[in-house]
Design goal:
By secondary structure, the protein is of the alpha/beta class. The chain has a single domain, classed as NAD(P)-binding Rossmann-like Domain (Rossmann fold, 3-Layer(aba) Sandwich). The chain is 51% helix and 14% strand. The protein has ten helices and nine strands.
């Protein structure tokens, strides 16, 4: 898919971060976009930005909980109605939150919410929109995993189980789809995106959408952490979106974003036995620009 002009794209998590930047850049390339999120205010900001920077394209916004299949089915029906279509060309399963770091100490609600959004959102998005991709003459599915899809850690001093489990699932699922679509829908491309430390509001969104129940003091600390995570990232959300779209244009199935991701990918492959419980891997991640 060398050009996005006159295509129809679906982007989950379009209210902020990489999702917002994907919407903006797709619209700027002449692509019609339907995007969903839980925050209607953030979605409206995204729509206004994309519409102001583009002309002749339709950008629609939809409130949707990607973890809920019925909500996703309603989103699909709205997309078909508002874009007057029975197909889409691009599906970006991008929505994600953090939370549920410890399987042992954190609440089940926090753990399940993170896993349900980060894995369930990708499954529901793929299950819901795959028939519309197959109905197109040219389609591409893009699932967002993470550096934590091959390194289930934030370092030996902090558990990171729910998010990592979800992102490992996304990576394995997407790789499994490669052969599936080649056999059954060869005109549909598939890519898995593995970002490292990207300048997004994922920490803030996780608190806002219920991944963690915090008192006022803890919420203030998390907001400060969110700002640090976003503002100190070595790769901006806009830069990440550009890398993703370039990867789709070149039909790259494995899209790694950031020097930190590249360095960790090589290190884990070279010495998987040392990947956990060894501060050297965390220091490698930080040296390449990851973490805070």
């Amino acid at each position: 898919m060398e050009s996005f002009a006159d295509k129809i794209a679906v982007v989950t998590g379009g209210g902020s971060g990489m999702g917002r930047e994907l919407v903006r850049q797709l619209a700027a390339d002449g692509c019609h976009v339907a995007t969903c999120d839980l925050s209607t205010d953030n979605l409206e900001e995204t729509r206004e930005m994309a519409s102001a920077e583009s002309s002749g394209v339709r950008v629609t916004t939809h409130r949707c909980d990607v973890a809920d299949e019925d909500s996703m089915l309603a989103f699909r029906d709205e997309v078909c109605a508002e874009h007057d279509t029975n197909f889409v060309n691009l599906v970006f399963n991008n929505a994600g939150i953090s939370g549920g770091g410890s399987f042992i100490n954190d609440s089940r609600a926090s753990w399940d919410r993170c896993f349900d959004v980060c894995w369930g959102g990708v499954y529901n998005g793929t299950r819901t929109f795959m028939p519309l991709l197959i109905a197109s003459s040219e389609g591409h599915l893009i699932n967002t995993a993470s550096v934590n899809g091959f390194w289930a850690s934030l370092g030996p001093d902090r558990p990171h189980t729910a998010y990592s489990a979800a992102k490992f699932a996304v990576k394995g699922f997407t790789e499994g789809l490669l052969n599936d679509v080649q056999l059954n829908a060869p005109h549909v491309g598939v890519s898995v995106v593995m970002p490292g430390h990207i300048g997004t509001s994922i920490v803030e969104n996780s608190v806002t959408h219920g991944a963690d129940e915090l008192d006022a003091e803890s919420a203030e600390m998390m907001n400060a952490l969110s700002s640090m995570f976003r503002d100190n990232a070595p790769v901006s959300a806009a830069q990440a979106a550009t890398v993703i779209l370039d990867g789709v244009r070149s039909n790259t199935w494995r899209i790694l974003i950031g020097d930190d991701t590249q360095a960790l990918d090589e290190a884990v492959r070279a010495d998987p036995e040392s990947a956990y419980g060894d501060m050297a891997f965390l220091e490698l991640f930080r040296a390449a620009g990851g973490g805070i």
